[in-house]
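Cross-check.
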Amino acid sequence: MDKQTALVIVDVQSVIVGYSYQGNEVVERIQTLLEKARQINIPVLFVQHNDPEGSPIATGTPGWQIHPSLCPHPDEPIIQKTACDSFYETSLQDELKARNINHLVIVGFQTQYCIDTTCRAAVSHGFGVTLAADCHSTTDDAVLKAADIIAHHNANLNGLGTPKNVISVKESSEIFV
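Predicted model, tokenized:
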């Protein structure tokens, strides 16, 4: 993997992990990937969703906090967002440009919302993307079970992109090796 790669950890917030399909197992795999990234000096950026008061992930509430097993280091920015797209009205693009990043490894929560949208936006913003197939999750919805949503997105996002940048879906054990 290119030295101009960053690990982007999206919405790994306590309450989301708690109610997502295999949430704790996904966090364990993200933690392993995070440790590998830190060992080989891959920049790490966290993205944290902010909801208004009354939401389980309302800014500043216990559920809003990043999961305690994935504590950001002081040099790892926490990008605050209010939409599914981690680039929308955030500092993510500027943070990546400042680090000369051109490729993102994306992990985190709410597969069909923030993970899907961030992967698609990243290629539109000029980044190659690797989605860690076993490091994202969600909840059941009215139509599909979470496992089916995850499998569907892994299949459909793989190879999607622009003429210059594509999303590649890989198991976390194949990343940073």
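The chain has one domain: 5-174. Strands lie at 5-10, 44-49, 78-81, 103-109, 128-137, 167-170. Passed to J.P. for a second look.
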